[in-house]
Amino acid sequence: MKPHEYEFGDRPWPDGKGVLQVYAPIDLTINPEAAALVDKIRDAMDGAPVSMLDTPGLHVTLDLVADKVIEDLTQSERDDLEDALRSRLADMPVYHGFAYPIAYAVGPIMDISPAGPLRTLQQAARDTIRSARGDTACTFRQAKPHMSLGYCHTPTDTDPWSRKVRQIDPAVVPLTITTVELVDVRPDNVTKELGWKPIAPSIPLRAD
Q: Residues of 66-101 as b/e, b for ≥16 C-beta within 10 angstroms?
């Protein structure tokens, strides 16, 4: 594994600044099998040079507002984006799928399948940000949807940790995602710790 580098769109993250992101939080209280698997992955990664996320911090990143740090966004701009996103996602359904662990290049993740519905959420977030703020706000590279469990802070051989994670069985669990959040994200590019907090009420996805 290699240290994760937090990025602000297509450039380095500005130290000490918050960035507005669109997250799909993972509520482990409604995903008990995923909660049990997360605990097993944490046990398997014990001793690795990785800053693990706390349970309330688990999420799928959908997109990032890349033209201004959050300190430079007015309350009106934040409110306009929230309203637009809430309207755009009003008919998007709750996600039901599966998750499974991988000791990835920059830390442990839970990959998610099928990815298609979450890619649709990513595209909806991107379209909303572009409509509200233009192309300069849309330089973040949207990765295949996944849940990061922690971020590497010191280089290490991935193979021993990958072998430990592969011993976990069963390793595929159901996953349900019911909300989207607009969040203020503040990472530490030295420790690789990540903190975030919502800046608006949750946006519910359409129930089944």
A: bbbbbeebeeebbeebbebbbebbeebeebebebbb
- SS3 of 182-200: the string is EEEEEECCCCCCEEEEECC
Q: Are 108 and 56 in contact (CB under 8 A)?
A: no
Output the furthest CA–CA distance in the chain (Å, rounded). Answer: 50
**Beta partners for residue 100, in sequence order:** 111
φ, ψ for residue 93, nearest 5 deg = -80, 155
3-state helix, strand, coil in the chain (%, to 5): 30, 30, 40
Tokens 């099998």 map to which residue? Answer: 33
Task: Using alpha carbons, list the distances in angstroms from residue 137 to 10, 25, 65, 78.
Answer: 10, 22, 5, 13
Identity at 164, one-letter amino acid code:
K
Report the alpha-carbon distance of residue 143 to residue 63 in Å, rounded: 9
- Residue 182 β-bridge partners: 22
Say how far apart CA 102 and CA 108 lie, in whole Å.
6
List pLDDT tens digits, range 122-179: 999 999 999 999 999 999 999 999 999 999 999 999 999 999 999 999 999 999 999 9
Amino acid at 197: K
Does the model's pTM come out above 0.85? Answer: yes
| Contacts (Cβ under 8 Å, ≥6 apart) of 125 | 22, 62, 63, 85, 88, 180
Q: Could you give phi then psi for residue 12, rounded to 5 degrees?
A: -60, 150
